[in-house]
Amino acid sequence: MNTKHLKKGDELPSSSSGRVRFYNMRYCPFAKRTRMVLWHKKIPHDVININLKDKPDWFFDKNPFGTVPAIERDNDIIFESAVCNNFLEEEYEGASLIPSCKKQRYHERMLMDAFGSVIPKIHTIVTGQNIDEAIENFMKSFQHFEKEIANRKFFGGDEISMLDIHIWPFIQKISVFEEIKEMEILKKLPNTSKWISNMLTVDCVQKTHTVGLNKYLHDVILGEKVDYDYKIEDDPILEA
Amino acid sequence: MNTKHLKKGDELPSSSSGRVRFYNMRYCPFAKRTRMVLWHKKIPHDVININLKDKPDWFFDKNPFGTVPAIERDNDIIFESAVCNNFLEEEYEGASLIPSCKKQRYHERMLMDAFGSVIPKIHTIVTGQNIDEAIENFMKSFQHFEKEIANRKFFGGDEISMLDIHIWPFIQKISVFEEIKEMEILKKLPNTSKWISNMLTVDCVQKTHTVGLNKYLHDVILGEKVDYDYKIEDDPILEA
After folding, report:
1. Residues B52, B240: Cα–Cα separation, whole Å
2. Is the ipTM above a cut-off of 0.90?
3. Which of A195, A230, B74, B174 is the least buried, fewest Cβ under 10 Å from its Cβ?
4. Which residue among A83, A110, A144 places its CB closest to the CB of B110?
5. A65 at the B interface (CB within 8 A)?
6. What residues contact B156, with CB distance under 8 A and at least 6 apart?
């Protein structure tokens, strides 16, 4: 199941017992983190897309904060991307995304949390008054990640890990900004650019690519009307 | 040890092997979360206060992001408040702050992460152009926490938990704003107000109260010169 973006007044589709239900917005970078984990671990799931501008009332019974991603399984509800991903990692088998070495595990967690202060700086590149200043602030806050990924395929080493997944949807957005606004950001980040190429070869990155992402960001940036369901029939579905 | 706020050019004090070193800024709400855990679990530690406006170069060797809190033990460095607190919880005995019930544990983690979107709204109460609008936005984002704490002593139940500690330093700031700016915020949050009274009876809350917090916030809000070391000799020290 992969619903259109449900809004106020739309009914909640009935659920299949035991099957994971994933509340999503197709262009939301936080939701995408969890979508990547679902695909990486090959967890069959139904996708309920939510119109975040006009949320159905029943969605607040699921998640009082009204945010995506949220994961539902029978009567368990989990929200907040890092917690959803931790839940999926703990509850499901399949390729692990968390380092077995304790030191490395703490290292990744610290960088995941530290990336939280990079996110608003990415946002400001598009919304801010002074683009050059915004890019400079982003570069400064991201410099440690650029250093960290030198001479490595992924942040986790030879295989992707939770940290790669945590960062990817936001860095991917930057490459779209570049196209739309003719900015040069990633060219100044050679290690990150190589990492992006490596990420694009990974199955869960390919499977979760939303066809209309460029169009969506373009429409948002230019203040045009957004079609959330654009080419939704092309979304890959992981049935079983 | 409880140093004055060290700045560029100041030397790093030599450390005692095996003893926890805590990098702090006395009025930083993120650092305070970790300070509360250190006191709650009665972990002896040295406090190295950092001048965040003029950081010593060696601090970036400890934490490349230059943020507090950071915890150092022998050659291990942990930064980011949630990760520091998790490290202390996992590595040290003493009263646990994480629920043993898995469902409750996930519930707390979700609320801890969700609180992340409340923090900028608290900040805007002081820095924003429209105070009434800022208070309304805070109220909206905090309403679930106000509901959640009805008829309970602490978020964790009868005893404080990591979620209480995660939230406390920010809600405490609001009570100071009220005094300084004559705003009425907490009066409209009766459950939270009761929770604040309960929190004030807890040992780790009392021991980590920084004498000059009101003066500090007052000076910041009015744009006056800040004395970070104000009455630093009154800070309680947990030696052994």
Report:
1. 28
2. yes
3. B74
4. A83
5. yes
6. B97, B99, B108, B162, B163, B164
Contact B84, B76 (CB under 8 A): no
Nearest alpha carbon to residue A172 among A3, A16, A32: A32
CA proximity to B107, closest of B94, B98, B96: B98
What is the average per-residue pLDDT within A5-11? 97
**Structural tokens at position B138:** 């805070």
B150 touches chain A (CB under 8 A): no
Q: B61 at the A interface (CB within 8 A)?
A: no
B173-202: buried (b, 16+ CB within 10 Å) or exposed (e) per residue?
bbebbeeeeebebeeebeebbebbebbeeb
CA-based nearest residue to B154, from B163, B166, B141, B144: B163
Reduce the secondary structure of B61-113 to three states and give it as a string: HHCCCCCCCEEEECCEEEECHHHHHHHHHHHCCCCCCCCCCHHHHHHHHHHHH
What separation in angstroms does the CA of A210 have from each of A46, A174, A214, B223? 16, 15, 9, 47
- pLDDT tens, residue by residue, B21-38: 999 999 999 999 999 999
- Please check whether residue A60 touches B, CB under 8 A: no
pLDDT tens profile A113-157: 999 999 999 999 888 788 899 999 999 999 999 999 999 999 989
- Cβ-based contacts of B110 with chain A (< 8 Å): 78-80, 83
pLDDT tens digits along A173-230? 998 888 877 788 998 999 999 999 999 999 999 999 988 888 998 898 888 999 999 9
Question: How far B233 CA lies from chain A's nearest CA (Å)?
Answer: 32
* Chain B residue with the nearest C-alpha to that of A83: B110
Phi-psi region at B202: left, alpha or beta (left = phi > 0; alpha = psi -120 to 50): beta
B66 Cβ contact partners less than 8 Å away, ≥ 6 residues apart: B52, B55, B59, B60
Strand pairing partners for B22? B47, B71
* Amino acid type, A59: F
Residues of B belonging to the active site: 28
Cβ atoms of A230 and A212 within 8 Å: the answer is yes
Partners of B146 on chain A (C-beta within 8 Å) are none
Contact between chains at B83 and A109 (C-beta distance less than 8 A): yes
Q: Are A32 and A208 in contact (CB under 8 A)?
A: yes
